[in-house]
Amino acid sequence: MSSIALIASYPKSGNTWVRKFLTAYIKQQPLSEILNDGSIPLVEGQNVFEMVTNSPFEKDNFERSWGAYCAALGEGKVGTIFKTHLPNGEAGVVPMFPSTTQVVHITRHPLSIVPSLAHYRGLTQAEAFKEMTDRKTTIKSGVQATEITPDPALWVIPMGSWASHTESWLRNTPRSRLLNIRYEDMLKDTETEARKIIRFLRFPYDPDRMAFALSETEFKNLKKVESEQGFAENRARTDGGFFRSGGNECYSPSKKELSRLRRKLLPVMRRLGYDELPG
Fold this sequence. Notes:
Layout lengths: L4 E5 L5 H13 L3 H4 L11 H8 L5 H15 L7 E4 L17 E6 L2 H12 L3 H8 L5 E4 L13 E4 L3 H11 L5 E5 H6 L1 H11 L6 H10 L2 H11 L25 H10 L1 H6 L8
């Protein structure tokens, strides 16, 4: 790999599944040993920023240092693969990440995201749907960076709608540096999609390593190990665990909401092969 690699997605789109698969493939360790080991950390996280820059994670400092921070990450001192839920700048405007960044971008049908997002954020499903269709939605950095933060709202940036977030990655990432993976395709043929990821990130392909990683990160095992030892990244505001349904839920929009989806999301959805309602 050159520079850094990102596992990027709108929240609740399968980012964690991909990261745990990659970790199992690389380390060849059982899920019980890697679920909470901090591999593939949050690129916008407080702990990584302070380790790389040796400076405090403060709003003004973070925004001012962003370019130098990304360049320093490319030196590989804290690893080369990171997670992000940030948009890549604004759609059609200036990218946030260097053009040399390798990006595995995961997408999921918006209506399939809604139940999981609502559960995680402590919202009603209608509220989660509205948030996903609003270009003014923001995200707070630092929430997943440490176990305890006195003020988790250290850095508030525009998250955008599902459409603007997705489009920012499709438009602002060089085509040769972008691999788009649909969550739905991962569910249908996990091995084929996983093989694409391994080869895109230029790891040697090994069928035995692949079989091990796929077995360890099956949904039933993710759910089982979380129930046994907990999951450090689970900041859900309601009960039920981080790994819940494995993608079997879908929000049923009202006629008014379906009209909003058509206006706000559908053009980008169609570019990715999504119909109005999940198939």
